[in-house]
Each structure stands twice: as C-alpha cells, then as structure tokens.
Write a sequence for this structure.
C-alpha cells in the first residue's frame, strides 16, 4: 500500500489541488486524467511524468514557439457507436470531430518540429505517420460542412438541387400568402398586424373564427383562447404539400451523405481514438502547467532513493489562498537523508506552524509522486517513498467507539507493523490525548521503534522527553518553529538544530492571566523546567540573530563576487576592443604606407622620365605634399634628392572605454522592471542596472518592483541602503530614493536620484 490512511488526500488538502486541476482542464478527457491521477512509487514513471510536464511548461513559455490552441471534444462514445454498420455521426458530432482532429493535426505539426534534445518526451506524443490521414479526414468533413457545422448546399448535387427548389417554392408560397393577407386586411377579415405563421410545418394565416369561411382553406389549429384560427388557404395547399415532400427528400439526402462520410471514417476509428488519447494528455499537461505557473513550481532533481531536501518550500494551498490577498507564505527548508538525519522532531508554540510544516512536506511529496511540479527553490532535491503514512488531526469515531487517543494508537500500530526504509511517516502531536507522563513515554518508545526500522519522518510535539530523545539519538534531529518574544507572535519559520519552546508562560501572561496563577504554575513545574524553556528561547533567538548576520554576509559576498565578475568581464571586453582597434590601425597604417611608397616611386619615375619638366615637377611636388599630409610625415621634403620611403605615424586609437560608455548610454533605459522575478535574479539585475546608471550618468531612474508580497521592494531598498553606506565610506554623495507619486505607481516603484 502506497499511503495510509485511505482519506490521506483530504487530510493533506490534496483534494484542493485536484479540484484546481479539474478547473483548469478544458474537456472531459483531461478531467478524467486528473481524476485517475494517483501516487506513483516507480522511479522511471515519476521521472517521466515530471519531465514531460516540465517540457510542456518550457514549450509554452518559449518565446520562439507558438503553442497551438484549439477545441477538445469527447467523441469516444460517438466514434465507438459508428463501428456498427448503418449507424452514422450527425452534423453536430461531425463538427466536433472536425474541431478536435484539426487541433490534433496542429499539435502533430507542432510536436514534430520540436528539438529532440530539449523536448524529447513531448515529441514522443506525435503520431507515427498519422498526420496525412487526419488531415484528409478534416478536409473531407470541411468539404461537406459549412463553418456553422451544418451540411453545406454543395455537399452533393442532389442536396443543392432540392434546397434550390425549396427556396423557390417557399418564396412563391410566401408571396401568395402575403397577397391573400393584404386582401383580407383590406376586407377587414383579419387584424391589421396579422402575419403568416407556421403550424405543423405549413405556412398559415391567423383569422377570427367568424370569418374562417370567407377565406377558403384548411383549418390547422386554433389559439388557446379560441379567438383565432389558423387557416392554410386553398391556393397554397398544393405548394405546401410539395414543400413537405421536398423537406422529406432533403432529410433522406442528408442521411445518405452522413452515411457516406461515416463509411469513410469507420476504418479510422482506432486512429481517431488515439487522437482523443493524445488530446486528453495535452489537456491534462496544460492543467498541470497552469497550476505550476500559479504556484511558481519547479521540477526538483529526482533521486532514486528515499530523500527530502526541500529548499524554500511553500504550502501550495496556502499559496493559492493568501497570494491573491497580497499575503506572504513563509517558506521552509528541510533536509532528511539516510546518511544524516532521517527523523525531525518539531517543537514550538501552539499556532506556530508545526502542523502546517507537516502538511507541507506530506502534500509536496504526494504531489511529486503524482507527477506534479512543486513550489520550492530550484536547488531542491527529492526522492521517492514506497509508503506515505500520516497521523494528523482528530480521528475520534463515534461509530467505531474510538477515542482520539485510541485512534492515534491504532494508527501507530499500523505504522510500526508496516514501516521500513522507504517509509515516510508524519505524526502531529505525537503521544497527545492521554495522561502526559505515560503519553510521552509511549510516544518515545514508538518513535524509537520507527527509528530502529530506519523509516523517515516528521513528528510535532510539546513533550520535553521527545526533545531530549532527538538530541541524544543518532539519526534524529530537533527542529523549532521560531517565535518573536518581543512582539509575542509566531514567525512560522522552521529552524533545524535545536528544540523549540512552547512559550506557555509568556503566552499565558500575554492573554492577561492572573500573575499569581502564573507564578503558582511556575512553582508547580519547577524553576529547572522554566529555565530549560528559557534557554531554548535564548538559543533560538541567538541562532536567529547569527543566521540573519550570516545571510546578510552571504548576500554581500554574492553581490561582491558578481560585481568583481562583472568588472572582470568588462575589463576583458575593453582589452579585446583595444586589441581589435590597434590591429585595425596597424592594418590601415600598413596599407597607407604601401600606397605612399608606390606613389612616391611612381612620381620619381615620372620626373626622371620627363627630365624634370617644370610643370610635371610642380604637379609631382603637389602630390607628395598631399601624401605627406595624409601620412603625417614628420619632416618637410626640400628637394627630390631627399625623397625617401615615408613611415606613417600610427594614429592614436580611440578610447575603448569611451566606446563602451557611448554604447551603454545609447541602450540605457531609465526604468528597470523587476516584477515577476525571483529574489536572486532581481538582485543580479538591480546590481548591474545601478552600475550602468552611474556609468552613463543617469540623473534619475525608476525601479518597478510592484507591491505584491513586498519582497522585491524590500530587496531594492536594502540594496540601495547598502550602496549608500559604501558611497559614504568613500566620501561620495549618497543616493536619494523613495516611493513614486501616488498617481503613478506609488509604493509599487522606487525613484532613485543619482
């Protein structure tokens, strides 16, 4: 059995995820795939499901690709029906088939054109040589149906003839009735606003009962009040009879045409059903990608072993609920490995996030093994478990006469019997529901047994003995849900490495409980226990302080490394540009020098040949003076006897740095848009942008970060503050920055004046 209990999906809120997927499907085909989705334990299968979903995500996001759009209809019942001779698809079914097959053809072309290396699994969705057959079916349906899904007049010559005759005859009947009606109105036999109408498929006119004999014809009906009868005048009876005959002929011809097209489709029913399966897969993948985009989900590195290494993991259901409200879901990072710690014991105050932490791990693992991308950081790694067991919530059952504690014990019995090396168990408030001393002892004994079986798991508790057990047992580690003692509020952050405090005394004091009662309780439990709890608080506070310090240092080191790399890249570019300019200058100098030498030699030869003719000598002097100016000759030539081959002075190369600055100035934008980026990506963009802004001498720039969760705005302000601290140290005037105008973005942007 892959999971326990049977209602695990309700327990961990996976039902919400399934409902989200159902809502995002566009057809019953895709929704059936969602309903059939279940937890997989085979590594190759899970890897396939994750990879093909990620390929679909990349294909839809690729700006160089245009993913086809189309309609998907469930035609399995209709296509299965036409396997029986004599049955046929009606016009509506044919139109649905045309739309579905047209979409399948577009997808076939799209998949066949994908890069094998990048989209290998998506490419495998294409049919094997089926494109031509599907296209011909679509063309044949297009031939007989109009754009509204009705049989076109040109579907057959006979149908065209019948419809032409019908139109002509109906026009004739209409004109005859109009003439009769005008005369009846003139004679006062019918109301002035009377008009022809249909009764039993025949055109008739409404007449008061007293005048029905004055208009000869057949009475077909009368009104509910009896004040009007509907008469078919004798003049149009024969014509109406012929219309009915033509309508019958049209129906027979339509059936004949539909039978013919169905006969053409019958040999291809399996191919059509294959296209339905492909469309179901595309619809299902599209729903998974849509949910992944909403959750900012990723495909973690999958390991063929039991393993949990979630980094910045977020509870998907909380994300769906809180993000539209502008609220933030605090991420958690957790690591369980066979060679390190397999079990995490989480403690902390009530309403501090312990249960949410458990459900986050359970839900993400379940989603992963169902082939869904998960909301976590890119560096996350995950393995697979054969068994997923949870004991979360109150399982009291009146029908089974089970108390809450009895229900927990029944679950523990199952865990201990079935847990193994590839089991992940999650137990909320282990040992609760009975007398604390024995409850804690039993909890420790059961946890020890699960550790002995080398199972993986998360446990939440308030019991001190379980915290001590985690501290002293190999493969088990404590974790604390952090609490702000100053503000007296939970931080919903998981810190692994030390036990958490329940903050019972502090919370009781905050609620206004009588101080004498609190003091008496303190004396009952003993100062030693209170001191231990305070020490846990101090450890948590100190660890949080140093963790923040370490994080700040890490961010600054990263920014510094990126800045150094950026400068090194720029310097390398400058050097390369310099080499290119010098090489070009040398080449130009050599070409000009060669040209100069040739000109001088030719001039000397002409002077000698002309025996120093004055006019030609003057022309030669002018050419040489011009040549001197071109090559920058360093001395004046006084006589032709002093003619020598001139060496060109290489002109100074233009500044490579100036060229780069000019180029960046031309391409620089005074607005940077960080919206939708991850924090690390946004920081990298911001650092590079501010460097460019200062390089090109921008006076004022705008940083768009949106309001959202506030993370990008906080990142922007922190970086600008750090930048100002660095500028002050170097004696440089600090940057001015603040929110934009309330009418033009307000707190969603930061204006920076350099």
């Amino acid at each position: 059995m892959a999971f326990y209990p049977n209602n695990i999906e309700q327990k961990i809120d996976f039902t919400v995820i399934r409902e989200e997927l159902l809502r995002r499907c566009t057809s019953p085909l895709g929704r059936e795939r969602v309903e059939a989705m279940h937890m997989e334990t085979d590594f190759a299968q899970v890897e396939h499901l994750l990879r093909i979903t990620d390929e679909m995500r990349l294909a839809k996001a690729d700006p160089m690709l245009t993913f086809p759009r189309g309609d998907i209809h469930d035609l399995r019942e209709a296509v299965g029906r036409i396997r029986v001779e004599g049955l046929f698809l009606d016009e509506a079914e044919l139109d649905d088939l045309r739309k579905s097959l047209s979409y399948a053809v577009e997808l076939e072309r799209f998949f066949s054109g994908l890069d094998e290396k990048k989209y290998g699994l998506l490419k495998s969705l294409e049919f094997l040589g089926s494109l031509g057959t599907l296209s011909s079916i679509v063309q044949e349906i297009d031939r007989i149906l109009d754009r509204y899904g009705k049989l076109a007049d040109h579907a057959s010559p006979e149908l065209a003839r019948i419809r032409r005759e019908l139109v002509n005859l109906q026009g004739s009947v209409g004109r005859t009735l109009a003439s009769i009606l005008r005369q009846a109105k003139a004679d006062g036999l019918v109301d002035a606003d009377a008009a022809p109408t249909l009764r039993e498929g025949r055109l008739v006119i409404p007449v008061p009962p007293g005048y029905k004999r004055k208009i000869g014809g057949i009475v077909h009906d009368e009104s509910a009040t009896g004040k009007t009868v509907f008469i078919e005048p004798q003049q149009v009876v024969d014509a109406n009879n012929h219309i009915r005959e033509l309508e019958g002929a049209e129906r027979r011809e339509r059936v004949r045409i539909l039978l013919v097209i169905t006969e053409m489709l019958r040999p291809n029913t399996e191919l059509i059903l294959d296209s339905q399966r492909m469309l179901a897969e595309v619809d299902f993948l599209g729903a998974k990608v849509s949910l992944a985009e909403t959750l900012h989900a990723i495909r973690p590195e999958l390991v063929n072993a039991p393993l949990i290494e979630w980094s910045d993991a977020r509870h998907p259901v909380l994300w769906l609920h809180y993000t539209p409200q502008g609220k933030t879901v605090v991420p958690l990072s957790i690591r369980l490995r066979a060679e390190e710690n397999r079990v995490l014991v989480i403690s902390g105050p009530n309403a501090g996030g312990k249960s949410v932490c458990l459900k986050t791990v359970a839900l993400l693992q379940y989603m992963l093994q169902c082939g869904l991308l998960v909301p976590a950081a890119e560096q996350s790694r995950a393995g697979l478990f054969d068994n997923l067991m949870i004991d979360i919530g109150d399982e009291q059952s009146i029908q089974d006469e089970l108390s809450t504690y009895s229900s927990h014990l029944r679950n523990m019995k199952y865990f201990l019997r079935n847990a193994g090396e590839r089991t992940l168990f999650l137990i909320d408030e282990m040992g609760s529901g009975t007398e604390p001393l024995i409850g804690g002892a039993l909890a420790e004994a059961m946890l020890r047994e699960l550790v002995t079986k080398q199972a993986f798991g998360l446990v939440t508790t308030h019991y001190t003995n379980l915290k001590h057990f985690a501290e002293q047992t190999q493969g088990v580690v404590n974790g604390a849900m952090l609490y702000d003692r100053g503000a007296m509020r939970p931080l919903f952050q998981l810190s692994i490495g030390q036990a958490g405090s329940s903050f019972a005394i502090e919370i009781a004091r905050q609620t206004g409980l009588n101080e004498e009662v609190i003091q008496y309780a303190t004396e009952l439990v003993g100062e030693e226990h209170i001191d231990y709890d305070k020490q846990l608080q101090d450890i948590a506070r100190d660890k949080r302080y140093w963790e923040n310090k370490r994080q700040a240092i890490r961010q600054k080191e990263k920014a510094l490394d990126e800045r150094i790399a950026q400068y090194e890249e720029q310097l390398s570019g400058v050097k390369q540009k310099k080499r290119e300019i010098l090489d070009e200058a040398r080449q130009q100098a050599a070409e000009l020098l060669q040209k100069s030498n040739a000109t001088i030699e030719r001039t000397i030869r002409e002077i000698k040949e002309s025996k120093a003719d004055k006019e030609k000598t003057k022309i030669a002097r002018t050419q040489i003076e011009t040549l001197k100016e071109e090559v920058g000759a360093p001395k004046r030539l006084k006589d032709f006897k002093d003619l020598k081959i001139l060496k060109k002075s290489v002109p100074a190369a233009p500044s490579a740095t100036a060229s780069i600055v000019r180029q960046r100035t031309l391409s620089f934008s005074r607005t940077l848009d960080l919206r939708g980026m991850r924090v690390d990506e946004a920081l990298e963009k911001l650092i590079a942008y501010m460097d460019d802004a200062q390089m090109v001498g921008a006076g004022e720039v705008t940083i768009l970060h949106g309001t959202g969760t506030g993370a990008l705005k906080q990142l922007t302000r922190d970086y600008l503050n750090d930048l100002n601290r660095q500028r002050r140290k170097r004696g440089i005037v600090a940057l001015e920055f603040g929110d934009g105008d309330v009418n033009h973005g307000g707190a969603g942007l930061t204006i920076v004046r350099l």
The longest strand covers residues 476-484. The domain at 301-525 is CATH 3.40.50.300 (Rossmann fold).
